[in-house]
Amino acid sequence: MAALADGLEWQEFTSRRDMLAFHRTDPVPTLGLRGNGTRMERIHPRAMIRDAEWRRMRHAILRAHCVYFTGNSRRYVYDWGLMACGPASVTEAHPLCGPL
Asked: What is the pTM of this model?
């Protein structure tokens, strides 16, 4: 399992707007994992999608949560699709994901 690998560098994105996530919780010590510590970054779902989309979903907790792993309609430092399938590595494509 990758989460148990020695030397794992953990990048955690968190948002106060996501009611289904554990905002400000460091997953490495919470889950008892080995790793080089967690680099935590705060993001906002409103910056990821167009204004009209945000107005439709901002009060729907599950829809707002799904924004984090669906495609963005705006360019933003956090884009799950680019992180998982993009042409560059995460550390090359996103300034927030630099070395710990």
From this structure: 0.65
